[in-house]
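Hi support team,

I submitted a single chain yesterday and got back a structure, but I'm not sure I'm reading the token output correctly. Could someone confirm the output below corresponds to the sequence I sent? I've pasted both exactly as they appear in my results page.

Thanks,
R.
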Amino acid sequence: MDQTQLAAEADAFTSAHGITDTADAQIVIATQSGTCPQGFYASICGGTGNYCAWHSSSNEPYTNLPYILDSGTGCGEDFINANGTYDGVTMVGGHEYAETITDPFPVSGWYDGSDSVSGGEIADKCAWAGENWGDSDPAGNVTLSTGSFAMQSLWSNAKSGCVMSTPQSTGDTVTVTSPGNRKNVAGGKYSLAIKGTSSGGHPLTWSATGLPAGMTISASTGVISGKFSTAAAYTTKVTAKDTTGGSGSATFTWTVSAAVGTPIKGFNSRCLDDAGLWETLGNPVDLYTCNGTAAQKWSYSSSELHVFGLCLSDTGGSGSKVSITNCKGAATETWTHRSNGEYVLKSNGLCLTDPGSSKTAGTVQQLAACKDTANQKWSGT
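Hi R., thanks for writing in. Yes, this is the structure output for that exact sequence:
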């Protein structure tokens, strides 16, 4: 495909799409892999070409943009980034776009006629990060609302040199609400929803640094979840960005302690267990096959039964299921461990009871009238 054919293609596109303001048009003729527009610098095209792309004009300005990846490093692959497969695509495409804007009909727009080295156009003078004007010419990644892209610098008459800048954000105000400092225990599962708002009501994209080991954040919802794997102190920063470039963040400490305690065994030698390992208020407590997990590490102190730093608590009287909650010293979480093995709740005098007599692992434990029966006998703490 030569220049005459490319010009005809641009004219045909302009006509087919009814473009009337041809002086301000921006037609890009992008060819597929394996196609070799005349002079393209790619080994599969014979290896004799000397350009990556160029712009010209017919009835309208147009850019001839070959399949840049066919040229590999010859047209910018990995030029900015170590894994920058598409570096050349955005650098070359941006180069030609800038020149089509400032010199839409070549030699009738801006160019430096005295520059015989690079060709004198706004991007040519700064091509390939100082190829013609010294290695100080900038090139790098530019972050826009749609992602990060490798770009080259452009000539500035005001500076008499090549410049490169990232547009200043004029985006919405994004507010992220801190969840406050957190305390959890290693070995447990947890889910924490971070709240944030965009002043323009735009969707948010979430990220985080310093999360406890084993935890991740959902980029679309801002929910942090996972299973704590390592006891340590963390400084966590959660950031939300919206589609206008607005950004906000919140920082808090997250202390993960080691699990402490020993198993409490009930009927049929099964263990009292925080169901599913969840460190969640209101999570049920069952009787399960003893497995040594943190969900079965209980401690009995100050007349409270602790697991994951939370307390075993009543949810509503006789026949009600027990669950874990914040420790507040309330009668509904105060237990007496009798010498016969019963755990008796202070608030109502009922006993911690296995209603299924351990016929089914995973049965949630309940409160019932104390009868000194085998399904109310507990040992281990």
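A quick pointer for reading it: Residues 87-102 form the longest helix (16 residues). Let us know if anything else looks off.

Best,
Support desk
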